[in-house]
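tool=predict chain=A
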Amino acid sequence: MQDKIASLKSKKEEALLGGGKKRIDDQHKKGKLTARERIHFLLDEGSFEEIGMLVTHRATDFGLAKEKYLGDGVVTGYGKINGRLVYVFSQDFTVFGGSLSETHAEKICRIMDMAMQNGAPVIGMNDSGGARIQEGVVSLGGYADIFYRNTLASGVIPQISAIMGPCAGGAVYSPAITDFIMMVENTSYMFVTGPNVVKTVTHEEVTSEELGGASTHSTKSGVTHFSCANEIECINNIKKLFSYMPSNCEDLPPRLKYEEGNETRTELNNIIPANPNQPYDIREVINNVVDGDTFLEVHKNFAENIVVGFARIGGRSIGVVANQPMFLAGVLDNHSSTKAARFVRFCDCFNIPLLVFEDVPGFLPGTGQEWNAIITNGAKLLYAFREATVPRITVITRKAYGGAYDVMNSKHIGADMNYAWPSAEIAVMGAKGAAEIIFKKEISKAENPADKWKEKEQEYNELFANPYKAAEHGFIDEVIEPSETRSKLIKAFKMLENKAVKLPKKKHGIYRCRNSYFFKKLFCFSFHLNILRK
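tool=predict ok
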């Protein structure tokens, strides 16, 4: 028996080395951790239990029969983060460049199946050169098996992807289906087709970093939700993000102990500028309302005219959606609408209440917006709010104009509580434009049109550019002092904690996603490809 135990220990030691000491050193020289080091820093000390350590590939072609590594390029198993069960897989770049084989895929699918059966999140750390070419179609089938499980798990258990190296071709679609993507600056990238293919088809010269690096996807495409300076920061962000969400769709988010004290925040009384056209940072409002240092912003550098993220209020986990007057005056456009809609849907899937801060002058005008489907993209946010059954509270801090007023979680689409500050302006449009339309003839006939315009603008302001007309109709539940906001919200969320809503029976709603710009680009790509083939 001692010989057999010794043999077992030898195999485990071999598996722990992955592709060998030299390749591990090369990984470190690139500023990257190994697959096992990543798991070590992610999970609670001593909690990791590995599954499939001794798995090897089954391929025999192209000399693969003579080159086998225990684990086959991915470390899988389960453990705990702050005492809570999670399932993890971490691709090992030191083994065949982390490429996905048939057995590699089977290991990932195994833990995804277990996660679904046991109602716990899946965290994937991706560092792979893509499908293992030597295995042909079985490696492609392995990707499809993973995509299938990603789709089944969507909205059932949280799925978090950390891109810690290359992720190209079909490999990108698994992270794209998951709930949140994190990337590491300068060492990770994602793209469907690499720089060489781009150059061949479109004649564009572009580097991997420019095409699909963390900066590109966090600012331009919005593919990644968090861009991290290094892998340790990425892992810490995963832990923090996980702390706000439940383990599955049947659970409630973790709640921290909280003792109420003086919840008045006098600083809020001085945040809104006297000039309604002057911007202010909505993050100041958020940070003064939520529990101290709990706001975790998501998609921080993408579609900056809207701010979304997680926070706690009175110890409760909440999702925050807020217009940002500091960027494009807080208007809704294509990117901000889809960014917020996706976030709202995630919160609703996992029983996280929603808090909305509204200061929106409307939708961004222009051909660029209209041709890129602002109608359907704006409708996505409207749809997401209306569909959500979690507690939903809106605070109107200043402007709430036009259709954007309806879309931003208004009473009319099912918000539970709607508050407004005295500075709120709830109207079809701003007083200047309204006066020009309503009193056009009267202004044109006046001896001094400019003075008449100002007079009528003031008249419209007094009638509509305030929260009181909306309050008279019951569209606003209460007009409150800004300093009272935190206290009101703590009480309201507590009151709503047992909210139960039953939606009409249906298979699912039809969530329109067509984007004319996407189809135009797809056509151009196909056109160039056909030319090359000829």
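Residues 266-430+465-495 form a domain with the 2-enoyl-CoA Hydratase; Chain A, domain 1 fold (CATH 3.90.226.10). DSSP finds 21 helices and 17 strands in the chain.
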